[in-house]
């Protein structure tokens, strides 16, 4: 009897003190989540999806361990080419560890590259269905990365990954869409300064692939070229050369070949390498002609 | 770090649960309580003993971890520097890589993570002490403490459901249940900063001291309640 009374007293004391502490705990928890020291609470329904493992997840400190185990499980689904399960598994994994970029990146890659390619090569589907499924998984991968960005808005790698997805010539490139992601990458606070010129160059290369952006691309590429000698790269020089021809830039406003290319031998080499990528949509105006001219002049040297 | 957390919790629960029954079995308890030793002093002495033991074991494990991690980090830094030299990385790139590697080495954040493990063990030990004052067996104390440990990891969900959920379909009983869990059980999720400290995320002094205050709050209440049940207990 005495013990029962004592337990009841303890219960009420804890309840009363609970009123003193719950606001404190709530504020501390929200502050720690905002500082990314602890994980945000699981999304509604995730515990149900986890099933028995949910109990282990409840241990909190084991969230990373459970996510790692589910990552192995996702790999098994990948081997079985079960894309629905792969997608579901990565949804769970990223709910458990929303701040781990690796999981967002890998989950998206499974969808926009592996699943998408699988449907591209699935011969028992009609070409229309193939394309539709390919596009669907590409979009799924892109949406997955977008979710990752919502959780980690300052992470430039996820923005860059999105720009890669929409410029990849092996997928279904959408340059206009990629432009927004390039801008988002460049506007990221955490983008290291030494990476900026590289992203700017990638943005420029993407712009050159779209006819409607040629004028803008030329101005952008021109500025990059003039800005730093680090940008005096084969692809940048070759695209500028082609754009000058494509836009019919007056001779006196053009960057002369002698400035664009270190030597005529290298110009020939760079342009020859450049024209191989014609199918990717890069401008090639005047490139073949120039190659012929350079080859002829090289012959005369002998 | 995960092993340190697990070990410290198990040790805190098991060692505290055994304190009073062991003293009873050895008849040490009668000898002590027959002397003018206040029962609160006896309980606090026992609790502090367990905490020192947990603290020292954590320090030893932390020392070992820090030494291994230090050498491993140095090794990785050398590899990165060699890579930078071979590939001609710009100095800014190398600096960033070195900072990324060092961030996951021995840092103050890592020490704060170990501190949080100790805090969690401290709350569990004082709770196990409270349970052992009215429990009839060691096994009962351990089982109840482990159950409360699990419940403590749902406290955050319960509190969020109570305070921040706007779902209209919740029954009255469910609301009462979530409120009770949020009020009675400690929120152990707050102590789970191991993952972020491993990644090198900075634990501010403010956050660490607020965690320390919360720990003292719980330990204080559980110790006072333990004394409340133990003060007139007859053996």
- Spell out the helices and strands of chain B N to C: HHHHHHHHHH
Tally the beta strands of chain A. Answer: 0
The proportion of residues forming helix of chain A, as a percent range, comes to over 70%
Compute the number of helices of chain B. 10
Give the number of domains of chain A.
Answer: 1
Give the rounded overall mean pLDDT of chain B. 87
Instruction: List low-pLDDT spans of chain B.
Output: none
How many distinct helices of chain A?
15
Task: Please identify the structural class of chain A as seen in this structure.
Answer: mainly alpha
What would you call the structural class of chain B?
Answer: mainly alpha
- The share of residues in extended strands of chain A comes to under 5%
Q: Strand share of the residues of chain B?
A: under 5%
Mean pLDDT, all residues of chain A: 87
Tell me about the largest β-sheet of chain B.
none
Low-confidence stretches of chain A: none
Textual characterization of the structure:
The complex is a heterodimer of chains A (302) and B (235). Chain A is mainly alpha-helical and 302 residues long. Chain A has a single domain (78-299), classed as Serine Threonine Protein Phosphatase 5, Tetratricopeptide repeat (Alpha Horseshoe). Helices cover 71% and strands 0% of the residues of chain A. Chain A is built from 15 helices and no strands. Chain A has helices at 2-34, 46-50, 53-57, 63-79, 83-96, 101-120, 127-151, 156-165, 175-187, 196-208, 214-227, 234-246, 257-260, 264-275, 287-301. By secondary structure, chain B is mainly alpha-helical. Chain B has one domain (2-230). Chain B has 10 helices and no strands. Chain B has helices spanning 2-25, 28-33, 39-87, 91-103, 108-134, 138-152, 155-164, 172-184, 194-198, 205-230. The longest helix of chain B has 49 residues, at 39-87. The radius of gyration of chain B is 23 Å and the shape is flat. The two termini of chain B are 41 Å apart. The model of chain B has no long low-confidence stretch (mean pLDDT 87). The interface between A and B is large, with 42 and 43 residues.
